[in-house]
């Protein structure tokens, strides 16, 4: 996998950029560990991909901490979240 901020990716906005979206919603929050995130572009890519899944109410991405919090209407489908993270170009390594 290639990070968007790696020399071969070249599309990143650099460390310190932030694209975290926070919302107050009712649902089940699950925190995942994701590797390869380094910047705001990474956060946006994962938020967009995971946020498009059915039942997902909110996504909070912390690139610096390597964490993605998914708030869903019910229990999240771990395999669907992993696939969405993979589609964005990153690796879900498990629940935090």
Give an overview in words:
- The structure is a single chain.
- By secondary structure, the protein is of the alpha+beta class.
- The protein contains two helices and four strands, in the order βαββαβ.
- Strands 2-3-1-4 form a four-stranded antiparallel β-sheet, with helices on one face.
- Residues 7-15 have low confidence and may be disordered.
Q: Low-confidence parts lasting 5 or more residues at pLDDT below 50?
A: 7-15
Number of helices: 2
Structure classification: alpha+beta
Please provide the count of β strands: 4
Beta-strand percent range: 25-35%
Describe this protein with a few key phrases:
single chain, about 100 residues, alpha+beta, 2 helices, about 25% strand, globular
Compact description:
The protein contains two helices and four strands. It has helices spanning 40-51, 78-87, and strands at 28-35, 56-62, 67-72, 91-95.
Record the SSE blueprint.
Layout: E1 28-35, H1 40-51, E2 56-62, E3 67-72, H2 78-87, E4 91-95
Antiparallel strand pairs: 1-3, 1-4, 2-3
């Amino acid at each position: 996998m290639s990070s968007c901020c790696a020399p071969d990716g070249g599309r990143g906005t650099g460390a310190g950029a932030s694209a975290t979206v926070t919302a107050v919603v009712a649902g089940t929050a699950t925190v995942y560990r994701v590797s390869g995130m380094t910047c705001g572009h990474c956060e946006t890519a994962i938020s967009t991909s995971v946020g498009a899944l059915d039942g997902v109410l909110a996504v909070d991405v912390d690139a610096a901490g390597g964490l993605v919090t998914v708030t869903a209407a019910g229990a999240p489908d771990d395999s669907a979240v992993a696939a969405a993270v993979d589609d964005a170009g990153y690796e879900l390594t498990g629940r935090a």
